[in-house]
Amino acid sequence: MWFPVSRDSLRTSGFCAVPTQAPEQLSAHNLSSTQIRVTWQPPAKHSWNGELQGYKIFYWPEGRQKDEMQVKTVAGATANQTVLDELRMYTEYSMVILAFNAAGNGPNTTVPVKARTEEGSKSLCWSSYFQSVPAFVFQ
Fold first, then answer.
1. How is domain 7-138 classified at the architecture level of CATH?
2. Which of 22, 60, 78, 128 sits at 20 to 30 Å (Cα–Cα) from 51?
């Protein structure tokens, strides 16, 4: 399985090194048909190698890992959640996370977490349909 950050990318830059551990307790659950909330705990403080600048969540629809992968960057060492939005309805997404500092990206979590967006509302579908039907159809 391919992951966005390889072990080879762990490097040092000047006097600062990248984080040596991934964030912990990554979890995800759906909020709606187009949103998933992602939560995590920071990596152990001794692995930060300086101050964390934030996190990167890599996510993709199941079965389309490389060609449709997206990334959301969340700033701040104390951040522990975010919402992924503008997702496809009733689609399973996989996600991994990494922490980064001034030297670069640390390792990502090795086992992707999965969550499925909810089914879309039938009333939304009908509403969209009627908005696109010319007015003369109803006369």
1. Sandwich (2.60)
2. 60
